[in-house]
């Protein structure tokens, strides 16, 4: 990071503070500079009687400190802008290069990084989230361990997320071994349901096509969830968590869970992050497994058999 340059007003302030008897370290702590910076400035003033820098070789900066501060205010308002857009918004009447913009960003400790995407929350969503957390803030560890967390995720046979890189020589982009072949719609997909808790994990269940309430009952709840819950006494039965997806909240599903004495955990709207914190690592393992197996298997029937999904 570039060194901060002392303005002329700050330099004269340092000289005045030293003249009143303040030490170099005391001045540095008050103004936010190292004491060696203060000592060099005082020594130069004693020798030359001036505080300005001597003429230096090299091209001077094309922007002043005030203009740089204005640039930082712009980037705080528009953090998603490109360097070209920032250049036009910063000093439209000056001839600046995008390299100058990137240099100022680097000097401020900023770099272009991947954007984190999260669901958009309204004030009502935030209030419901807070109310959900406050109602359970005094739950003990035994209560949380009763929760069985469920989730679904869709897997593609051929994943093309756009982040793949290849090591190759120049002008060999179209060499067959350097080309990643793609297929429409990822070559097919399957919905995978999973459920985990503190001390167990249920079988993964695959559902072809879109998940409906009827499929949810026939393929997930009846053969897996209810069967597992029936193995527990009513007094110590687990609590089942599923999100607010339409198949989970259909009248038939709600009645089915109630008739089979399956207690569910109420879930606030747009609360994907809480559930993803439970399943992020689990789904990551499955994604990695699929990416490895898809190199050798060409359809989902083979892949589901090898990966252990029902």
UniProtKB/TrEMBL annotation:
Domain Transposase Tc1-like: 68-136
Ranges annotated as spanning the membrane: none
Gene Ontology molecular function: any one: DNA binding
Any one GO biological process: DNA transposition
InterPro entries: Homeodomain-like_sf, IS30-like_HTH, RNaseH_sf, Transposase_5, Transposase_Tc1-like, WH-like_DNA-bd_sf
Domain Transposase IS30-like HTH: 3-45
Pfam families reported in the protein's UniProt record: HTH_38 (PF13936), HTH_Tnp_Tc3_2 (PF01498)
Residue span of region Disordered: 46-65
Amino acid composition bias (Basic and acidic residues), ranges on this chain: 51-65
Classification via Gene3D superfamilies: Ribonuclease H-like superfamily/Ribonuclease H, Winged helix-like DNA-binding domain superfamily/Winged helix DNA-binding domain
PANTHER family per record: SI:DKEY-77F5.3 (PTHR23022:SF135), TRANSPOSABLE ELEMENT-RELATED (PTHR23022)
Name by which UniProt lists this protein: Transposase Tc1-like domain-containing protein
Source organism: Littorina saxatilis
């Amino acid at each position: 990071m570039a060194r901060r340059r002392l303005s002329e007003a700050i330099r004269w302030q340092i000289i005045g503070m030293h003249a009143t008897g303040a030490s170099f370290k005391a001045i540095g702590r008050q103004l936010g500079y190292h004491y060696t910076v203060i000592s060099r400035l005082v020594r130069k003033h004693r020798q030359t009687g001036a505080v300005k820098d001597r003429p230096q070789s090299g091209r001077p900066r094309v922007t002043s400190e005030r203009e740089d501060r204005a640039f930082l205010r712009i980037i705080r308002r528009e953090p998603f802008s490109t360097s070209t857009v920032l250049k036009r918004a910063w000093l439209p009447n000056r001839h600046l290069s995008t390299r100058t913009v990137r240099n100022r960003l680097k000097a401020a400790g900023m770099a272009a990084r991947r954007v984190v995407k999260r669901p958009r929350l309204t004030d009502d969503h935030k209030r419901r989230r807070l109310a959900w957390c406050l109602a359970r803030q005094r739950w003990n560890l035994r209560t949380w361990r009763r929760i069985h967390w469920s989730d679904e995720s869709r897997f593609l046979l051929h994943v093309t997320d756009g982040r793949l890189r290849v090591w190759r020589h120049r002008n060999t982009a179209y060499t067959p071994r350097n080309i990643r072949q793609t297929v429409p719609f990822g070559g097919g997909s399957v919905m995978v349901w999973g459920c985990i808790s503190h001390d167990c994990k249920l079988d993964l269940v695959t559902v072809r096509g879109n998940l409906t309430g009827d499929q949810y009952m026939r393929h997930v709840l009846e053969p897996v969830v209810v069967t597992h819950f029936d193995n527990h006494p009513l007094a110590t039965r687990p609590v089942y968590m599923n999100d607010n997806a339409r198949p989970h909240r259909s009248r038939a599903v709600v009645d089915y869970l109630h008739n089979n004495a399956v207690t569910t955990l109420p879930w606030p709207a747009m609360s994907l992050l809480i559930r993803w914190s439970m399943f992020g690592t689990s789904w990551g393992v499955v994604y990695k497994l699929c990416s490895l197996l898809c190199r050798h298997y060409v359809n989902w029937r083979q892949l589901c058999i090898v990966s252990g999904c029902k």
